[in-house]
Design a protein that fits this description.
With about 150 residues, the protein is an alpha+beta fold. The protein has helices at about 15-35, 50-60, 70-90, 120-125, 135-140, 145-150, and strands at about 5-10, 90-100, 100-110, 115-120. It has one domain: Up-down Bundle (Four Helix Bundle (Hemerythrin (Met), subunit A)), CATH 1.20.120. α2 (about 50-60) packs antiparallel against α3 and α2 packs antiparallel against α5.
Length: about 150
């Protein structure tokens, strides 16, 4: 089994982060309106792992025919997870390349703590049917704050 390797191609500029937010924030707002309408994101509500877990679990349990597509969940919660990581750690928005291609991630360079990448959209996407209601809370319990640079 070979060791997984990746390279951080570049950290996103403020302009690139703003473009990503313009693309993803509508999905987060749609999910918020449907599942947590009491939370006012326009007033600078600080996101936390529990909030993301509530939205994701509500989506999992939503049996309505007009339930938002999985891609909306990935876009909205992936973006929100990235914002949360940026608030709580030293990770920053970046583009990463590995043997599978190039993708958006939250990353950090450096020998101490070591280089790290958290592909936030992939994290949400891969948990589409996982019936764990605390995937975001569990992330922060399972990944040490030292590893994240928190």
């Amino acid at each position: 089994m070979s060791k997984y390797t990746f390279e951080i191609e570049h950290f996103l500029s403020d302009h690139e982060v703003a473009a990503l937010e313009a693309e993803c924030a509508p999905s987060l707002r749609m999910l918020n309106l449907r599942y947590t309408p009491h939370v006012d994101l326009s007033q600078g509500h600080l996101l936390d792992a529990e909030y993301l877990d509530v939205v994701r679990t509500s989506w999992l349990l939503d049996e309505a025919s007009d339930r938002p597509e999985h891609s909306i969940l990935v876009e909205g919660l992936g973006f929100a997870f990235g914002k949360l990581l940026q608030q709580r750690t030293t990770l920053r928005c970046c583009m990463v390349r590995d043997s599978y291609g190039t993708f958006f991630s939250m990353g950090r360079l450096g020998p101490n703590p070591a280089k790290i990448s958290v592909p936030v959209f992939s994290y949400v996407e891969k948990r589409e049917t996982l019936m764990n209601g605390e995937v975001f809370s569990d992330f922060f319990k399972q990944v040490s704050s030292d590893a994240l640079g928190a």
